Amino acid sequence: MSVSLILIPLAVAAVAAAHGARSGRDGKGRVVCEVRTRMRDETLLAAALQEAGAAVTADDREIAAQWDGVRGRFTRDADGVWSAHFTGEVDESRAVEIVRAVDTGYGHQVQRAVLDRLRERAPAAGLWLESETTTEDDGVRLVFAVGRDGPHAG
């Protein structure tokens, strides 16, 4: 079976929700539907696919992911909107499940990148990380001290 998903960026998801999610078949009879997602960065997408258990290969035109019995091909159009095309042992429900798992992994990748950037840039802004706590919902709470001379300035 073959399923194609159009991954709608969250920035336009509200408009898509107002008009309803599109689902149907293309000219070749393949299932095509839209899924809301926050995915934009190809490096983070590749990492999220790996986090979702896929073997990943990428070039300048697409990212390919291989799971047991399912192959996914991720491409982006001129507007930056990703499409995912799945083949193998997959139906519409399984394809949406895969994309949601990848989107969750993408969120984790974005969170890691932001946290790394905060940790890296904080000293230049006169901030020193005093504590870091992970919450039950996988949120991260950082507590910074303000001071130009480092964490032990008095």
What does this entry look like structurally?
The chain is of the alpha+beta class. 31% of the residues lie in helices and 37% in strands. The strands form 2 sheets. Strands 2-3-1-7-6-5-4 form a 7-stranded mixed sheet, covered by helices on one side. Strands 8-9 form a two-stranded antiparallel sheet. A hairpin with a 2-residue loop joins strand 5 and strand 6 (70-76). It is elongated. Residues 10-22 have low confidence and may be disordered.
Notable characteristics:
seven-stranded mixed sheet; 154 residues; alpha+beta; Double Stranded RNA Binding Domain; two-stranded antiparallel ribbon
Give the name of the CATH architecture of the largest domain.
2-Layer Sandwich
Question: What does the average pLDDT come to?
Answer: 77
Query: How far from one another are the termini?
Result: 67 Å
Shape: elongated
The SSE string, one letter per element, is: EHEEHEEEEHEE
What structural class do helix, strand and pairing data support?
A: alpha+beta
Main sheet strand line-up: 2-3-1-7-6-5-4
The helix content is: 25-40%
CATH topology of the largest domain: Double Stranded RNA Binding Domain
Tally of contiguous helical segments: 3
Tally of domains: 2
Low-confidence stretches: 10-22
Q: Determine the strand fraction and express it as a percent band.
A: 35-45%
